[in-house]
Write a structure and sequence with these properties.
Blueprint lengths: L2 E3 L27 E3 L7 E12 L17 E7 L2 E8 L12 E4 L2 E8 L2 E6 L2 E6 L3 E9 L2 E8 L6 E5 L2 E6 L3 E2 L15 E3 L2 E9 L4 E7 L2 E8 L3 E8 L2 E8 L2 E6 L2 E4 L6 E11 L2 E10 L5 E7 L2 E5 L5 E4 L4 E4 L9 E2 L6 E4 L2 E8 L7 E4 L2 E4 L4 E11 L1
Length: 390
């Protein structure tokens, strides 16, 4: 893999570092019209859906001294118009933590697990529930059904795959790849759709063998078995399985019947990576370490080539044809609270950012290119979804 350095691209004016006061782990019709790429006479409408967590005016949400005990609301906006307002906090069906609600297909899905079990709501209305307390790893809506991938609360291994709350598959040992906020995974977290099928993959590791399995529409198949491999990711892409793993000092991408060395013959080793389709080919997004020097970098790699961000990247965004990233101390986020990866989304080659100034005298806003859209909320923006309609 021959690596070419990609320069950082600053899209915003004025310049906007990752600021995180509130612990993210604890814790339209509107929009900007852009010229379409479909040729003369076409016009694209960029539609933004933005979520926010709102608190009473008198509450200092940045100090958050009553975390988990204060009543708040979740809001969903399309453009500047509020579509949904959902009560959150104690006794409700929603949690005010940034990582416990998700914008999927323009709807606001929230999750909560407590003494009542697990409740998944859509726009504030309970849509699936079960008695076991579990944390969601993935959520997909397909043909009117809600598919979830979850892990028992307090456990670090095992998972449960459900449809509308009913168990389809359950393992006490097994680690799904991906999740909400993971590079290379979409708004559905560890669950995604490939050629109309609901998919995920997981690994099972023992002292003597590592196995990787793929699941498509509830049917599991073995993708890899090795006594020495350390899997990084596995996915279905265009109906075919792909597996990324380290073995014997090499990073291997196994897809379409081939095992491809994407570590330049051992000169670099990927520390983490996610599989994706980029510019029509199966590629890897993540970070690596150069052998000998120990220097780290991040980027996107494929056979015999790649893009490099020498300063590393906290978050990487891709839309299949273009990519961008946010690195440590990124100027675009200066003075702002950016709780999670879902506060950024790439659309039409440009990165939309949902930003909340740490200066409480300034309103949170959506930045897209040189355009901004402010939201009069007492709290923070927690996510953005972008769709481009032609």
């Amino acid at each position: 893999m021959i690596l070419a350095t990609a320069a950082s691209c600053v899209l915003l004016d004025p310049e906007l570092p990752l600021g995180s006061v509130r612990d993210p782990y604890r814790s339209g019709e509107g929009g900007t019209e852009e010229g379409g790429e479909g040729g003369a006479g076409t016009k694209a409408d960029t539609v933004f859906a933005v979520s926010a967590v709102c608190f009473p005016r008198e509450y200092d949400w940045q100090r958050d001294s009553s975390y988990g005990e204060v009543a708040c609301t979740l809001r969903l906006f399309r453009g500047e118009r509020m579509l949904v307002e959902v009560p959150a906090g104690p006794g409700t069906y929603a949690d005010g933590a940034a990582d416990r609600h998700h914008i999927i297909d323009g709807r606001l899905y929230s999750e909560i697990c407590d003494s009542r079990g697990t409740i998944v709501s859509c726009d504030g209305n309970p849509a699936a529930r079960w008695k076991e307390a579990e944390r969601l790893l993935g959520l997909v809506v397909s043909e009117g059904s809600i598919f979830t991938l979850s892990r028992p609360a307090g456990k670090e291994d095992g998972f449960v795959y459900r449809r509308n709350g009913e168990v389809l598959m359950k393992l006490d040992s097994g680690t799904p790849f991906g999740g909400f906020g993971h590079n290379g995974y979409g708004p559905g977290g560890a669950l995604y759709q490939d050629e109309g099928k609901v998919c995920f993959a997981y690994s099972v590791c023992s002292a003597w063998m590592t196995s990787v399995y793929g699941v498509a529409d509830g049917v599991a198949e073995t993708l890899l078995r090795s006594p020495s491999a350390k899997p990084l990711d596995a996915k279905y892409i265009k109906g075919k399985p792909a597996v990324l793993y380290n073995d014997g000092g090499a990073t291997v991408l196994s897809c379409e019947g081939r095992d491809i060395d994407i570590g330049q013959g051992g000169s670099l080793l990927w520390n983490n990576g996610s599989l994706l389709l980029f510019e029509g080919r199966v590629s890897v997004m993540g970070s690596w370490q150069f052998a000998g020097s120990g220097k780290r970098a991040a980027g996107i790699g494929w056979e015999n080539s790649g893009l490099v961000w020498e300063n590393g990247a906290d978050y990487i965004y891709c839309d299949g044809e273009s990519c961008d990233h946010l690195e440590p101390s990124d100027l675009r986020l200066r003075g702002c609270y950016f709780p999670r990866r879902e506060c950024g989304k790439l659309a039409g080659g440009k990165l939309a950012l949902a930003l909340t100034p740490l200066d409480t005298g300034s309103s949170p806003y959506l930045a897209f290119g040189r355009d901004t859209l402010r939201y009069p909320v007492c709290g923070f923006l927690s996510g953005v979804e972008v769709s481009v309609r032609k």
